[in-house]
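Worked example 3 (structure in, sequence out).
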């Protein structure tokens, strides 16, 4: 959603200028990396640290929150359990937003695992 807003010129000026300065990406490069080259998900995920570093910005915070609401409504609410575990660094970094938003949907986020490899090592006794 962030990259889509970027290529459509929908980012607020300060965020747009900062992102352009840091990444120097144009429309053609983004389209090529997402649709024509391998590892599109890794390319898109590479912007997560930037997004997290700008969570103090109202636009970024709102974008993340809206996407969490969408994820809850479209996915989590389809399952019978109200207890949810989160795996991954982005979800862990958004822990407060997930917990607060989840309450409104009767969800309880009970476990956060920032790095799944740590749990796999522990499980397999390596």
């Amino acid at each position: 959603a962030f990259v889509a807003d970027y290529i459509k010129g929908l980012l607020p000026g300060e965020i747009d200028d900062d992102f352009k300065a840091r990444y120097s990406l144009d429309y053609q490069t983004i389209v090529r990396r997402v649709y024509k080259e391998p590892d599109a998900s890794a390319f898109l995920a590479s912007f997560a640290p930037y997004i997290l570093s700008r969570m103090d910005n109202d636009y970024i915070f709102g974008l993340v929150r809206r996407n969490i609401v969408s994820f809850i409504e479209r996915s989590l609410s389809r399952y019978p359990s109200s207890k949810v575990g989160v795996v991954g660094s982005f979800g862990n970094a958004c822990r407060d937003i997930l917990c607060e938003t989840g309450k409104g949907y009767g969800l309880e986020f009970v476990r956060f695992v920032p790095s799944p490899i740590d749990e796999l090592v522990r499980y397999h006794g390596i």
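Notes: The first strand starts at residue 83 and ends at 87. The chain has nine helices and two strands.
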